[in-house]
Amino acid sequence: MNSARTMVLLACGALAVLAGTANAQRPGTWRCKRLLAEDGRSWREDIVVVTLLSDIVAIEPASKHEAVDRDFGDAWVIPGLIDLHTHLLLKPYDQMAWDDQVLRETTELRTLRARVHGIDTLWAGFVAVRDLGTEGAGFADVALQRAIAEGLATGPRIWASTRAIVRRGWYGPSPDDPAVPKGAQTVEGEAEIRDAVRAQAAAGAQWIKVYADYRKQKGGAAEPTFALDELAALVDEATKAGLPVAAHATTDEGIRRAVLAGARTIEHGGGASEATLRAMRERAVVLVPCLAANEAIVLQAGRKGPIVDRLNAAKAGFQRALAAGVTIGCGSDVGVFRHGDNARELELMVAYGMTPAQALASATTVAAGVLGAADLGVVRKGARCGFVVLGADPLVDIGALRQVRAVVREGDELWLRRDGR
Predict the structure, then answer these.
(1) pTM of the prediction?
(2) What residues contact residue 278 under an 8 Å CB cut-off, 6+ apart?
(3) Is 52 left (phi over 0), alpha (psi -120 to 50) or beta?
(4) What is the pLDDT of residue 8?
(5) Quick one: pLDDT at residue 306?
(6) What's the domain range around 72?
Protein backbone atom coordinates (compact mmCIF):
# COMPACT_ATOMS: atom_id res chain seq x y z
CA MET A 1 0.00 0.00 0.00
CA ASN A 2 1.29 3.42 -0.92
CA SER A 3 1.89 5.22 2.39
CA ALA A 4 1.97 8.64 0.72
CA ARG A 5 -1.45 7.99 -0.79
CA THR A 6 -2.77 6.87 2.59
CA MET A 7 -1.56 10.10 4.19
CA VAL A 8 -3.21 12.20 1.49
CA LEU A 9 -6.54 10.39 1.87
CA LEU A 10 -6.54 10.61 5.63
CA ALA A 11 -5.56 14.27 5.50
CA CYS A 12 -8.55 14.97 3.28
CA GLY A 13 -10.76 13.52 6.01
CA ALA A 14 -12.70 11.34 3.59
CA LEU A 15 -11.75 7.95 4.96
CA ALA A 16 -11.52 6.22 8.29
CA VAL A 17 -9.70 3.02 7.32
CA LEU A 18 -7.48 2.09 4.40
CA ALA A 19 -6.60 -1.60 4.19
CA GLY A 20 -5.15 -3.92 1.58
CA THR A 21 -6.03 -7.42 0.49
CA ALA A 22 -2.58 -8.66 1.49
CA ASN A 23 0.21 -8.91 -1.05
CA ALA A 24 -0.54 -7.21 -4.37
CA GLN A 25 1.54 -9.90 -6.10
CA ARG A 26 -1.09 -12.54 -5.38
CA PRO A 27 -4.83 -12.54 -6.10
CA GLY A 28 -7.19 -10.84 -3.67
CA THR A 29 -10.43 -12.55 -2.68
CA TRP A 30 -13.69 -10.79 -1.78
CA ARG A 31 -16.71 -12.70 -0.52
CA CYS A 32 -20.11 -11.32 -1.50
CA LYS A 33 -23.33 -12.63 -0.03
CA ARG A 34 -25.11 -11.00 -2.98
CA LEU A 35 -23.45 -9.88 -6.20
CA LEU A 36 -25.40 -8.12 -8.94
CA ALA A 37 -25.71 -10.49 -11.89
CA GLU A 38 -24.73 -9.44 -15.39
CA ASP A 39 -28.41 -9.06 -16.31
CA GLY A 40 -28.59 -6.18 -13.81
CA ARG A 41 -31.90 -7.42 -12.44
CA SER A 42 -30.98 -10.29 -10.11
CA TRP A 43 -28.41 -11.35 -7.53
CA ARG A 44 -25.85 -14.14 -7.54
CA GLU A 45 -25.55 -15.50 -4.02
CA ASP A 46 -22.50 -16.48 -1.98
CA ILE A 47 -19.86 -15.52 -4.53
CA VAL A 48 -16.14 -14.78 -4.29
CA VAL A 49 -14.66 -12.17 -6.62
CA VAL A 50 -10.98 -12.84 -7.33
CA THR A 51 -8.84 -9.88 -8.34
CA LEU A 52 -5.27 -9.35 -9.40
CA LEU A 53 -4.11 -5.74 -9.39
CA SER A 54 -6.66 -3.88 -11.53
CA ASP A 55 -8.36 -6.92 -13.06
CA ILE A 56 -11.13 -9.30 -12.04
CA VAL A 57 -9.69 -12.72 -12.86
CA ALA A 58 -12.49 -15.00 -11.60
CA ILE A 59 -16.01 -15.12 -10.19
CA GLU A 60 -16.38 -18.32 -8.17
CA PRO A 61 -18.72 -20.00 -5.69
CA ALA A 62 -17.71 -19.26 -2.11
CA SER A 63 -17.61 -23.00 -1.46
CA LYS A 64 -14.33 -23.15 -3.41
CA HIS A 65 -12.58 -20.95 -0.84
CA GLU A 66 -11.73 -21.97 2.69
CA ALA A 67 -10.71 -18.40 3.52
CA VAL A 68 -10.93 -14.99 1.86
CA ASP A 69 -9.18 -11.68 2.31
CA ARG A 70 -12.42 -9.86 3.00
CA ASP A 71 -15.95 -11.06 3.73
CA PHE A 72 -18.48 -8.26 3.21
CA GLY A 73 -21.11 -10.04 5.27
CA ASP A 74 -24.80 -9.26 4.83
CA ALA A 75 -24.42 -6.78 1.97
CA TRP A 76 -25.21 -6.15 -1.70
CA VAL A 77 -22.31 -5.71 -4.14
CA ILE A 78 -22.76 -3.80 -7.40
CA PRO A 79 -20.41 -2.58 -10.15
CA GLY A 80 -18.76 0.77 -9.62
CA LEU A 81 -21.08 3.53 -10.81
CA ILE A 82 -20.42 6.01 -13.63
CA ASP A 83 -21.54 9.65 -13.85
CA LEU A 84 -21.53 10.89 -17.45
CA HIS A 85 -21.82 14.60 -16.64
CA THR A 86 -19.72 16.09 -13.87
CA HIS A 87 -17.81 19.30 -13.18
CA LEU A 88 -15.09 18.43 -10.69
CA LEU A 89 -13.63 21.93 -11.05
CA LEU A 90 -16.81 23.56 -9.74
CA LYS A 91 -18.12 23.83 -6.23
CA PRO A 92 -21.87 24.09 -5.57
CA TYR A 93 -23.56 27.31 -6.55
CA ASP A 94 -25.09 27.69 -3.10
CA GLN A 95 -21.51 27.98 -1.79
CA MET A 96 -20.16 30.33 -4.47
CA ALA A 97 -21.75 31.83 -7.57
CA TRP A 98 -20.53 30.48 -10.91
CA ASP A 99 -19.33 33.91 -12.06
CA ASP A 100 -17.24 34.32 -8.91
CA GLN A 101 -15.60 30.93 -9.38
CA VAL A 102 -14.65 31.71 -12.98
CA LEU A 103 -13.47 35.27 -12.32
CA ARG A 104 -12.05 35.30 -8.81
CA GLU A 105 -10.57 31.89 -8.12
CA THR A 106 -7.28 30.66 -9.52
CA THR A 107 -7.04 27.49 -11.55
CA GLU A 108 -4.50 26.19 -9.02
CA LEU A 109 -6.93 26.54 -6.10
CA ARG A 110 -9.78 25.03 -8.07
CA THR A 111 -7.62 22.07 -9.08
CA LEU A 112 -6.57 21.39 -5.49
CA ARG A 113 -10.21 21.54 -4.41
CA ALA A 114 -11.13 19.17 -7.25
CA ARG A 115 -8.93 16.51 -5.64
CA VAL A 116 -11.29 16.53 -2.66
CA HIS A 117 -14.28 16.47 -4.99
CA GLY A 118 -12.78 13.36 -6.56
CA ILE A 119 -12.60 11.60 -3.21
CA ASP A 120 -16.20 12.58 -2.43
CA THR A 121 -17.25 11.20 -5.82
CA LEU A 122 -15.44 7.93 -5.28
CA TRP A 123 -16.97 7.55 -1.84
CA ALA A 124 -20.41 7.91 -3.34
CA GLY A 125 -19.65 4.74 -5.30
CA PHE A 126 -18.81 6.44 -8.61
CA VAL A 127 -15.56 4.97 -9.91
CA ALA A 128 -15.61 6.78 -13.28
CA VAL A 129 -16.85 10.14 -14.58
CA ARG A 130 -17.03 12.06 -17.81
CA ASP A 131 -16.10 15.60 -16.78
CA LEU A 132 -17.89 17.90 -19.20
CA GLY A 133 -16.13 21.23 -18.99
CA THR A 134 -13.75 22.90 -16.58
CA GLU A 135 -15.79 26.13 -16.62
CA GLY A 136 -12.89 28.51 -16.96
CA ALA A 137 -10.19 26.25 -15.51
CA GLY A 138 -8.54 25.45 -18.83
CA PHE A 139 -7.10 21.95 -19.07
CA ALA A 140 -7.10 21.26 -15.34
CA ASP A 141 -9.29 18.18 -15.80
CA VAL A 142 -6.55 16.55 -17.87
CA ALA A 143 -4.01 17.37 -15.16
CA LEU A 144 -6.27 15.86 -12.48
CA GLN A 145 -6.87 12.80 -14.65
CA ARG A 146 -3.15 12.22 -14.98
CA ALA A 147 -2.52 12.82 -11.29
CA ILE A 148 -5.08 10.15 -10.39
CA ALA A 149 -3.65 7.74 -12.95
CA GLU A 150 -0.16 8.26 -11.54
CA GLY A 151 -1.26 7.79 -7.92
CA LEU A 152 -0.64 11.43 -6.97
CA ALA A 153 -4.33 11.98 -6.23
CA THR A 154 -7.30 9.78 -5.44
CA GLY A 155 -10.52 9.83 -7.39
CA PRO A 156 -12.55 8.24 -10.16
CA ARG A 157 -11.25 7.50 -13.63
CA ILE A 158 -11.83 10.67 -15.62
CA TRP A 159 -12.84 11.11 -19.24
CA ALA A 160 -11.90 14.76 -19.81
CA SER A 161 -13.46 17.27 -22.19
CA THR A 162 -11.40 20.35 -21.20
CA ARG A 163 -12.82 23.77 -22.06
CA ALA A 164 -16.07 23.10 -24.01
CA ILE A 165 -16.95 25.11 -27.12
CA VAL A 166 -19.59 27.83 -27.45
CA ARG A 167 -20.44 30.59 -29.93
CA ARG A 168 -18.83 33.93 -29.13
CA GLY A 169 -21.13 36.33 -27.30
CA TRP A 170 -23.31 33.55 -25.84
CA TYR A 171 -21.55 32.47 -22.66
CA GLY A 172 -20.54 34.19 -19.47
CA PRO A 173 -19.26 35.83 -17.53
CA SER A 174 -20.21 39.04 -19.38
CA PRO A 175 -20.91 37.43 -22.78
CA ASP A 176 -20.67 40.74 -24.67
CA ASP A 177 -17.30 41.75 -23.23
CA PRO A 178 -14.44 39.84 -24.91
CA ALA A 179 -11.96 41.13 -22.33
CA VAL A 180 -13.67 39.18 -19.52
CA PRO A 181 -12.56 35.52 -19.07
CA LYS A 182 -15.19 33.03 -20.17
CA GLY A 183 -16.32 29.68 -18.80
CA ALA A 184 -15.88 27.99 -22.20
CA GLN A 185 -13.85 28.45 -25.38
CA THR A 186 -15.66 30.93 -27.60
CA VAL A 187 -15.55 30.63 -31.39
CA GLU A 188 -17.11 32.12 -34.49
CA GLY A 189 -17.28 30.35 -37.83
CA GLU A 190 -16.15 26.99 -39.10
CA ALA A 191 -12.41 27.72 -39.15
CA GLU A 192 -12.36 28.70 -35.46
CA ILE A 193 -14.56 25.73 -34.58
CA ARG A 194 -12.10 23.33 -36.18
CA ASP A 195 -9.13 25.09 -34.57
CA ALA A 196 -10.76 24.79 -31.14
CA VAL A 197 -11.42 21.06 -31.57
CA ARG A 198 -7.83 20.45 -32.65
CA ALA A 199 -6.44 22.46 -29.72
CA GLN A 200 -8.57 20.62 -27.18
CA ALA A 201 -7.69 17.24 -28.67
CA ALA A 202 -4.00 18.13 -28.53
CA ALA A 203 -4.37 19.11 -24.88
CA GLY A 204 -5.73 15.68 -23.96
CA ALA A 205 -9.51 15.92 -24.38
CA GLN A 206 -11.22 12.55 -24.74
CA TRP A 207 -14.59 14.10 -25.53
CA ILE A 208 -15.53 17.38 -27.20
CA LYS A 209 -18.37 19.27 -25.60
CA VAL A 210 -20.32 21.84 -27.58
CA TYR A 211 -23.15 24.15 -26.59
CA ALA A 212 -25.65 23.52 -29.38
CA ASP A 213 -27.97 26.06 -27.81
CA TYR A 214 -27.83 28.58 -24.98
CA ARG A 215 -29.35 31.87 -23.89
CA LYS A 216 -27.98 35.13 -25.30
CA GLN A 217 -28.57 36.98 -22.06
CA LYS A 218 -29.16 36.10 -18.44
CA GLY A 219 -32.73 35.02 -17.87
CA GLY A 220 -33.46 34.79 -21.60
CA ALA A 221 -34.74 31.78 -23.49
CA ALA A 222 -32.26 29.34 -25.00
CA GLU A 223 -31.69 29.51 -28.77
CA PRO A 224 -29.58 27.43 -31.17
CA THR A 225 -25.99 28.67 -31.23
CA PHE A 226 -24.52 27.05 -34.35
CA ALA A 227 -25.90 26.28 -37.79
CA LEU A 228 -26.17 22.62 -38.73
CA ASP A 229 -23.17 22.82 -41.07
CA GLU A 230 -21.07 24.36 -38.28
CA LEU A 231 -22.00 21.57 -35.88
CA ALA A 232 -21.26 19.04 -38.62
CA ALA A 233 -17.81 20.62 -39.06
CA LEU A 234 -17.19 20.31 -35.31
CA VAL A 235 -18.19 16.64 -35.30
CA ASP A 236 -16.11 16.01 -38.41
CA GLU A 237 -13.00 17.51 -36.83
CA ALA A 238 -13.60 15.60 -33.59
CA THR A 239 -14.05 12.37 -35.56
CA LYS A 240 -10.73 12.95 -37.30
CA ALA A 241 -9.15 13.11 -33.83
CA GLY A 242 -10.99 9.95 -32.77
CA LEU A 243 -13.17 11.84 -30.29
CA PRO A 244 -16.95 11.66 -29.72
CA VAL A 245 -19.07 14.78 -29.16
CA ALA A 246 -21.39 15.66 -26.28
CA ALA A 247 -23.88 18.44 -27.01
CA HIS A 248 -25.50 20.64 -24.41
CA ALA A 249 -28.96 21.22 -25.84
CA THR A 250 -32.32 22.02 -24.29
CA THR A 251 -34.41 23.30 -27.23
CA ASP A 252 -35.89 21.02 -29.85
CA GLU A 253 -34.04 22.75 -32.69
CA GLY A 254 -30.72 22.70 -30.83
CA ILE A 255 -31.15 19.02 -30.05
CA ARG A 256 -32.25 18.22 -33.62
CA ARG A 257 -29.21 19.93 -35.15
CA ALA A 258 -26.82 18.19 -32.75
CA VAL A 259 -28.37 14.80 -33.51
CA LEU A 260 -28.19 15.33 -37.27
CA ALA A 261 -24.61 16.58 -36.99
CA GLY A 262 -23.56 13.35 -35.28
CA ALA A 263 -23.34 14.11 -31.55
CA ARG A 264 -23.01 10.95 -29.45
CA THR A 265 -24.89 12.29 -26.42
CA ILE A 266 -27.36 15.07 -25.70
CA GLU A 267 -26.97 16.76 -22.33
CA HIS A 268 -30.19 17.93 -20.63
CA GLY A 269 -32.43 17.53 -23.70
CA GLY A 270 -35.72 18.38 -22.04
CA GLY A 271 -37.19 20.17 -25.07
CA ALA A 272 -36.94 17.32 -27.57
CA SER A 273 -40.08 16.75 -29.65
CA GLU A 274 -41.41 13.32 -30.48
CA ALA A 275 -39.82 13.55 -33.95
CA THR A 276 -36.44 14.48 -32.49
CA LEU A 277 -36.68 11.69 -29.94
CA ARG A 278 -37.34 9.23 -32.77
CA ALA A 279 -34.23 10.51 -34.52
CA MET A 280 -32.24 10.04 -31.33
CA ARG A 281 -33.46 6.48 -30.98
CA GLU A 282 -32.79 5.63 -34.63
CA ARG A 283 -29.27 7.10 -34.50
CA ALA A 284 -28.49 5.59 -31.06
CA VAL A 285 -27.91 9.03 -29.55
CA VAL A 286 -27.94 8.80 -25.75
CA LEU A 287 -29.80 11.28 -23.55
CA VAL A 288 -28.01 12.43 -20.40
CA PRO A 289 -30.78 14.37 -18.62
CA CYS A 290 -29.00 16.05 -15.65
CA LEU A 291 -32.19 16.00 -13.58
CA ALA A 292 -30.42 16.57 -10.28
CA ALA A 293 -28.89 19.85 -11.42
CA ASN A 294 -32.26 21.17 -12.49
CA GLU A 295 -33.70 20.27 -9.11
CA ALA A 296 -30.78 21.91 -7.31
CA ILE A 297 -31.12 25.16 -9.23
CA VAL A 298 -34.82 25.33 -8.47
CA LEU A 299 -34.19 24.62 -4.78
CA GLN A 300 -31.44 27.23 -4.65
CA ALA A 301 -33.84 29.75 -6.19
CA GLY A 302 -36.40 29.01 -3.51
CA ARG A 303 -38.88 27.43 -5.94
CA LYS A 304 -40.09 30.84 -7.09
CA GLY A 305 -41.32 32.21 -10.37
CA PRO A 306 -40.71 30.84 -13.85
CA ILE A 307 -37.63 28.86 -12.83
CA VAL A 308 -39.97 26.16 -11.55
CA ASP A 309 -40.98 25.60 -15.17
CA ARG A 310 -37.40 24.49 -15.83
CA LEU A 311 -37.80 21.61 -13.39
CA ASN A 312 -41.17 20.66 -14.83
CA ALA A 313 -39.80 20.72 -18.39
CA ALA A 314 -36.86 18.50 -17.45
CA LYS A 315 -39.18 15.97 -15.83
CA ALA A 316 -41.62 15.95 -18.76
CA GLY A 317 -38.79 15.70 -21.28
CA PHE A 318 -37.27 12.75 -19.44
CA GLN A 319 -40.61 10.98 -19.35
CA ARG A 320 -41.16 11.55 -23.09
CA ALA A 321 -37.70 10.17 -23.86
CA LEU A 322 -38.29 7.14 -21.66
CA ALA A 323 -41.62 6.43 -23.36
CA ALA A 324 -40.01 6.89 -26.79
CA GLY A 325 -37.38 4.25 -26.09
CA VAL A 326 -34.40 6.61 -26.16
CA THR A 327 -31.33 5.23 -24.39
CA ILE A 328 -30.76 7.23 -21.21
CA GLY A 329 -27.48 7.45 -19.35
CA CYS A 330 -26.78 8.74 -15.86
CA GLY A 331 -25.28 12.21 -15.78
CA SER A 332 -26.02 14.48 -12.85
CA ASP A 333 -24.23 17.78 -13.67
CA VAL A 334 -22.74 17.56 -10.17
CA GLY A 335 -20.76 20.63 -9.26
CA VAL A 336 -23.95 22.63 -9.56
CA PHE A 337 -24.75 20.77 -6.33
CA ARG A 338 -22.59 18.93 -3.79
CA HIS A 339 -20.02 16.39 -4.98
CA GLY A 340 -20.85 13.02 -3.48
CA ASP A 341 -24.59 13.50 -4.00
CA ASN A 342 -24.36 12.02 -7.51
CA ALA A 343 -26.88 9.30 -6.63
CA ARG A 344 -29.61 11.95 -6.55
CA GLU A 345 -29.77 11.63 -10.34
CA LEU A 346 -30.74 7.97 -10.04
CA GLU A 347 -33.28 8.70 -7.35
CA LEU A 348 -34.98 11.24 -9.63
CA MET A 349 -34.91 8.84 -12.57
CA VAL A 350 -36.88 6.36 -10.49
CA ALA A 351 -39.21 9.05 -9.16
CA TYR A 352 -39.93 10.09 -12.75
CA GLY A 353 -40.74 6.60 -14.04
CA MET A 354 -37.72 4.31 -14.39
CA THR A 355 -37.48 1.06 -12.49
CA PRO A 356 -34.55 0.80 -10.07
CA ALA A 357 -32.93 -1.76 -12.40
CA GLN A 358 -33.20 0.65 -15.35
CA ALA A 359 -31.72 3.48 -13.31
CA LEU A 360 -28.88 1.28 -12.09
CA ALA A 361 -28.15 0.23 -15.68
CA SER A 362 -27.99 3.89 -16.74
CA ALA A 363 -25.02 4.32 -14.39
CA THR A 364 -23.35 0.99 -15.18
CA THR A 365 -23.79 -0.85 -18.50
CA VAL A 366 -25.30 2.08 -20.41
CA ALA A 367 -22.73 4.57 -19.17
CA ALA A 368 -19.88 2.15 -19.83
CA GLY A 369 -21.16 1.77 -23.38
CA VAL A 370 -21.17 5.54 -23.87
CA LEU A 371 -17.54 5.69 -22.74
CA GLY A 372 -16.56 2.69 -24.82
CA ALA A 373 -15.26 1.10 -21.61
CA ALA A 374 -16.04 -2.61 -21.83
CA ASP A 375 -14.07 -3.14 -18.62
CA LEU A 376 -16.54 -1.08 -16.56
CA GLY A 377 -20.20 -1.37 -15.62
CA VAL A 378 -20.29 -5.05 -14.66
CA VAL A 379 -18.54 -7.36 -12.19
CA ARG A 380 -17.29 -10.27 -14.28
CA LYS A 381 -14.09 -12.00 -15.28
CA GLY A 382 -12.04 -9.74 -17.51
CA ALA A 383 -13.56 -6.51 -16.21
CA ARG A 384 -11.65 -3.85 -14.35
CA CYS A 385 -11.77 -4.11 -10.58
CA GLY A 386 -14.21 -1.53 -9.32
CA PHE A 387 -17.21 -2.44 -7.21
CA VAL A 388 -19.31 -1.02 -4.41
CA VAL A 389 -20.63 -2.64 -1.24
CA LEU A 390 -24.08 -1.48 -0.13
CA GLY A 391 -26.06 -1.95 3.05
CA ALA A 392 -29.40 -2.51 1.29
CA ASP A 393 -30.88 -3.72 -1.98
CA PRO A 394 -30.91 -1.00 -4.70
CA LEU A 395 -33.24 -3.08 -6.89
CA VAL A 396 -35.88 -2.67 -4.19
CA ASP A 397 -35.04 0.91 -3.18
CA ILE A 398 -32.66 3.00 -5.29
CA GLY A 399 -32.01 5.02 -2.13
CA ALA A 400 -29.79 2.11 -1.05
CA LEU A 401 -27.06 3.74 -3.15
CA ARG A 402 -26.66 6.15 -0.24
CA GLN A 403 -25.62 3.24 2.00
CA VAL A 404 -22.08 2.76 0.73
CA ARG A 405 -20.11 0.53 3.08
CA ALA A 406 -17.00 0.09 0.99
CA VAL A 407 -15.51 0.80 -2.41
CA VAL A 408 -13.03 -1.66 -3.89
CA ARG A 409 -10.84 -0.48 -6.72
CA GLU A 410 -7.65 -1.74 -8.36
CA GLY A 411 -7.96 -5.06 -6.54
CA ASP A 412 -5.47 -4.48 -3.73
CA GLU A 413 -7.29 -1.70 -1.89
CA LEU A 414 -10.35 -1.64 0.32
CA TRP A 415 -11.58 1.74 1.46
CA LEU A 416 -13.99 1.75 4.36
CA ARG A 417 -16.25 4.57 5.42
CA ARG A 418 -16.21 5.92 8.93
CA ASP A 419 -19.31 3.84 9.65
CA GLY A 420 -18.13 0.87 7.59
CA ARG A 421 -17.50 -2.62 8.95
Answers:
(1) 0.93
(2) 324
(3) beta
(4) 39
(5) 59
(6) 3-78+377-416
